[in-house]
Design brief:
Length: 145
């Protein structure tokens, strides 16, 4: 089971985790990204290329399913404007054993940061700036190649 969604709506963790647990897994791992207020950031805005972004996330989910013996993968990513403290991304993996679920979850967030076409703008009050890709994200993704 693969579920991928890109949507401006808030992410409901309890519902998403319950859906993965229903797969009969012995282990469910998850990652939730939240808007941080570092450096005076008041909001984050994400844009994407519809169709292309969903395809990239599905490709990542399929790669995880092939690499690990998973029962389910969920990737939810928000777009639009989000305030500090709001959830941006949820990744969940379900497997018979914890190690596969944990490794697959780490793989997915590391690769999502570099492989999915999102554009991020940070807001500080009324001023905004586009965020450049980080070398640390590229290094983390390279670990899985």
């Amino acid at each position: 089971m693969i579920r991928v969604s890109i949507d401006p709506a808030p992410i409901e963790l309890a519902l998403e985790l319950a859906a993965l647990e229903e797969r009969g897994a012995g282990g469910v791992a998850s990652f939730t990204g939240v808007v941080r207020g570092d450096g005076g950031v008041t909001a984050l805005e994400l844009e994407h290329y519809p169709g292309m972004t969903e395809d990239a996330l599905c490709t990542l989910a399929e790669a995880a399913m092939e690499r690990w013996n998973l029962l389910g993968v969920t990737i939810l990513h928000r777009v639009g404007r989000m305030e500090v403290g709001e959830r941006i991304v949820f990744i969940g993996t379900a497997a018979a054993h914890r190690r596969e679920a944990l490794e697959a979850c780490a793989f997915l967030i590391d690769r999502l940061k570099t492989d999915a076409p999102f554009w991020k703008r940070e807001w500080q009050g009324d001023a905004a700036r586009w965020v450049e890709a980080r070398e640390s994200d590229a290094a983390a993704a390279a670990h899985w190649r």
